[in-house]
Structure formats: C-alpha cells, structure tokens
Design goal:
Keywords: Methyltransferase, S-adenosyl-L-methionine, Transferase. By secondary structure, the chain is of the alpha/beta class. It is built from 15 helices and 9 strands. It starts with 11 loop residues before the first helix and ends with a strand. The model has no long low-confidence stretch (mean pLDDT 97). Bound molecules: S-adenosylmethionine.
Length: 358
C-alpha cells in the first residue's frame, strides 16, 4: 500500500477536476446526501434505464421543481445520475453506491450527524491539540464521555459506524482469540457489550470483564442483563486516563478492539504499561485495529485517513487511525512483543497478538 503513495495517479486534466471536487467538498456531500434522503435517487432508480422526467420525480418526492432541479443538476456533475437520450434522469453506478452500499451509508451518516458541523473547527483543533469541534455535540472534554448522552439520531450514527466494522470482524477474530485457551478476559473499551456477549455465548467457561467509562459501562450492563448473560460478564467502570485508578488483575488475556486508536501515542504506551499487571507472564494482549498503511485497497485506506480527522477535530484532539509502524512502536515501548500479526480481518482490521517481552 505504501508504494501506492509514492506515485502520481492523475493526469493534469483529471487532477484539476479532482481539485474542484475537493474545493466543493461540503456542497458535493450535502447534495448527495439530500438526493439520497429525500428519495430522489430511489425514484430515479425505479425508472431504471428508461429514466424519469423531472416533473414526475417532483410529483413522486413532493418537492418543488426548482428544488429537485438544482439538486439533480449538481448530481449530474458528480455522476450520481445521468441523462438518457431524451434527457430524463437515470441512476449511475455511483448513485447506486450512494443509495445501497452499506459502507458508504455508514460513512455518510457518521460524517453528517457526528462530524459535519464539528469539522468546521478543525483548524482550531490542529492549532490547540483540543477537539474544538466537540462543542457542536456537547460540553464534554472527549466524545467518549458524552456517548451515552448524545441525541438519539447522532448516537445511532456513531454506534452504526462503530458496530459496522466490529460486527463484521468479531465472528472471524473470536476464533483466533479463544483458540489460545482463554477463560478470563478483560475487555477494555467494551462499549455496548458486543464482544462480551459474543464471548459469553462462544464458550461455556468464558468470563469477561468490561472496563469502560461509567456511562458506557452502564449501557453495556443493561444490554448484558437483557441478554441474560449477567453471570458471565462483570463491569469495571473507570476512566483509563486517570493513572491513579488500578487495573483489575487475574486475567488470561486483555482484549482491546478499536480502542487504542482513541488515544495519543503517549497515552497508548501508558495504557499498555498498566496492562502488565492484568495478566501473568504467559498472558496475552490482543489488539484489534485498522491501520491505513496495510490496507489492500485504496478505498479502505482513504476511509481511514479521512476519518482520522474526526479524532482530531471532535473525539479528543490527539488520536487517529494509525500507521501500523507508529502504533507498533508504542506496543514495543510498553514492554510487549508482537508474536503474531493477522491482517485482512473483516473489512479492514489487523489482530496483533502480543506477549510480555521475556
Ligand atoms: C471506538 S469504541 C470501541 C468499542 C468496541 N471495543 C468495538 O470494537 O466496537 C471505544 C471505546 O473506548 C471507550 N473509552 C474511550 N475513552 C475511554 C477512557 N478514557 N476510559 C475508558 N474507556 C474509554 C469508549 O467509551 C468506547 O466504548
């Protein structure tokens, strides 16, 4: 993947066009989203290759001719729709992906509901190292403190994004983790209890402790109770950034999925160092992360590189979707060695199986 970034990929003409797409980014984004959300793309799709006339689309979606016309004309420019020979509107492949592709929809909802307003404050975030855009969502020092209090539609998009990746990765990776004869596992950043519930039902003798912020631990507890798994899952509410709070001990393994990317390099090292006490000399640290530099496809790397900016402007101001080389240095520095690396899990994830350095 890294070699890909050592080359120019555009002719001058294409580069200038790409530069215009970037220059008009927020307009392109909102037009595409509204064409999706107002049912205009769906209406056009129903007409298939025959296409649909402007007035028929207006009648179908209940918007004025002016409104639908400006949106669809912009949509022509971004190749979401095309003209048929008799200048009706028909859906293109890009329009199809905007309408139906789960990855595109999850990203679009997350960008609109969680990021859009906050990203306006990116410059301030870059200058101050603070998540300056978070004030658009609420009055917390990091987004994680506010997760359980977000307005429902924003919370839906946040968890929709988070769960989309873990739901695909977990069934694959769970076999790798429990192949190591793990019975007692500490799930740091256990979120809504998805990994804990999957683990609890994976093996009769598996016990999981979720360590997360109090608001999240409470959400997870409710879900675990609803699933009838309370005897197999414990909770350890704590802010991991408070170094005075001890970590729980006596585990075969620590599991951190999409968790360490929520922290700066210094914080990652500090968290990992404190993980030493949770396990004995043979214990495991399992880290599931998506690294942009080891993606097979440019599209996957692009999504991670762009979403990194959410961490800068909104989440906490100092974290990101990491380059694996930067991340692995933190693991080393904290006194662990990576004994196995498994790439290609789910859509974009890597499992790092780590042990204490001997
Ligand atoms: C991106 S989510 C990952 C959730 C889950 N592990 C997964 O793979 O889907 C990050 C989790 O870390 C938790 N977290 C963030 N900052 C934290 C902190 N300072 N202390 C404890 N947990 C924290 C969040 O509440 C959230 O549940």
């Amino acid at each position: 993947m890294l070699d890909f970034y050592k080359q120019e990929h555009y002719s001058a003409q294409n580069a200038k066009h790409m530069a215009q797409i970037i220059a008009h980014g927020p307009i392109v984004f909102q037009v595409a989203r509204i064409l999706r959300d107002k049912g205009i793309l769906s209406a056009v799709e129903e007409a298939r290759s025959e296409g649909m006339a402007l007035k028929d689309i207006c009648a179908k979606v209940g918007l004025s001719e002016y409104a639908v016309r400006v949106l669809l004309e912009a949509g022509l420019g971004m190749h979401l729709v095309k003209y048929t020979e008799d200048e009706k509107f028909a859906l293109t492949k890009i329009g199809y992906f905007i309408l139906h592709d789960p990855l595109t929809n999850v990203n679009m909802n997350f960008v609109h509901d969680v990021c859009y307003k906050g990203i306006f404050h990116l410059e301030e975030a870059i200058e101050t190292g603070k998540p300056a855009g978070l004030r658009e969502l609420g009055n917390w020092s990091t987004v994680y403190e506010g997760l359980s209090q977000l307005p429902p539609h924003i919370q839906k998009s946040w968890f929709g994004y988070d769960h989309f990746f873990s739901d695909i990765a977990f069934p694959e990776v769970i076999k790798q983790v429990y192949a190591e004869n793990i019975k007692k596992l500490l799930d740091i950043g256990g979120n809504t209890g998805k990994w804990a519930s999957a683990s609890a039902t994976y093996g009769d003798d598996i016990h999981v402790t979720i360590m997360d912020l109090p608001g999240q631990a409470a959400m997870a507890k409710q879900r675990i109770e609803e699933l009838g798994l309370s005897d197999k899952v414990d909770f350890y509410p704590a802010n991991i950034l408070d170094e005075s709070i001890p970590f729980p001990t006596g585990f075969d393994a620590v599991w951190m999925s999409q968790f360490l990317d929520c922290f700066s390099e210094e914080e990652i090292v500090s968290i990992l160092k404190r993980c030493h006490n949770c396990i004995d000399e043979n214990g495991w640290i399992f880290i599931l992360e998506a690294f942009w530099d080891i993606q097979r496809f440019e599209t996957a790397a692009f999504c991670l590189q762009q979403l990194s900016i959410y961490f800068t402007a909104i989440a906490n101001g100092n974290s990101q979707m990491y380059d694996s080389r930067v991340f692995k240095k933190c693991v080393e520095e904290a006194g662990f060695e990576i004994v196995e690396q498994i790439d290609g899990i789910g859509l974009s994830h890597t499992l790092l199986k780590c042990k204490k350095k001997s």
